[in-house]
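Friendly challenge for the regulars: who can give me the structure tokens for this chain first? No prize, just bragging rights.
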Amino acid sequence: MRKSWLLIGCMGVVAAVTYLGDPASALSGSLSSSRPQLTTIAIPAPPGQIPAKWLGYAGPPRANVLLPADYDPGTRYPLLILLNALANNYDSYAEDGIVARLSGLDAIVVMPEGGSGWYADWWNEGERGSPGWESYELGTVIPTILASYPILPQRQYHAIAGFSMGGLGAVYLAGRLPGFFGTVASLSGFVDPGYFAPVTEVGMWATALAPFEGNGNLDAVYGPPNGFYAQGHDPVLLAANLQQTRIFESTGTGVPSSAGVKSLSVRDLGATAAVATGSALEAPIIYPMNQLYHRALTAAGDDVTYQVHAGGHDLPDFYNELTAVLAWGFFNPVTTDAASWINNTVATSGQLWDIGYRFAQPPSRVVRFQQTGSTLSISAAGSAVTVTTSGGCAISTPTPAAISLPSQACS
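First reply, four minutes later:
Bragging rights claimed.
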């Protein structure tokens, strides 16, 4: 089988890595150290994809890369992509103490820039363009990391995770690239943007700072709340996309945990405000979202570990969730290949296991791909599609369609 992750470079432009910061950091790709090393790199986006106004710093988008202790560039390592939360950036996990708690993980951890963009290519009245966060993460960040660092090739060793908005991004992007990611973790994730719509999606527009950047379209991120583009980005409706993926889902109930109470007891005004705000967010929003998402994952027959705990949307409880998922394990065995699978998408192009696809025009509805043995079924998309097999066969067809996949490679 030709490994599908070798094909994802076709999804976007592979950017050259530029090391930022002090000279020691710049050499981290070639020097070993007895301690984990944190390096900041630049991963430029294709022109127009992530305009500078969506970044809080000058220059192209950045990423933090945590290299394990005794890092050896001649050895291959597991990969964890850790996506930032809302109102955070690539450096927030270092600032908040999350990185320090990853020091014992024998893996390369990449924390790419996600801004406050909700890990989506914004609808923007059908333009589906700038900012293009999902295309950036899938088509630029991942191929760049694979080209720049020694990553183990097996699906078992590729994980994606995030807190809050990062949890939404993790479960959505894992479903966009199921043949690559074997494990996904959502920690207090904003996993059901369709919950309490349209209020939720207007809130996404506002918290993404769109109105401050001149974008007055309330539905800029996902389009109309009940429209196909919003549905095609809602993890609750896309649960079947993760049927062969290990899933860790955790959420607080909003009732302050012992960790939250302890932070309150230090009488620090900032900690008090954070815990109070976190409880107010977790109870009415994050907890019910995760309850609905867990029901959807279970109904789809997914392999999910679900942990509900006291606590809110705050760092003390995030630390506990991180401890729990590290104990659960990011890199346990998973399905190597899937002869039968389902994937629902609104993307114009992508890679599903060993099948690449590209629509002639962006889909006008949620499209279901379903492979059963040697037959690939594609629902109506409002567009023709070209499917590329692992053997290099390119098949173009109107939709809906049922394709008999060739058993031999094409010349």
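The chain has nine helices and 17 strands. The longest strand covers residues 246-252. Your move, everyone else.
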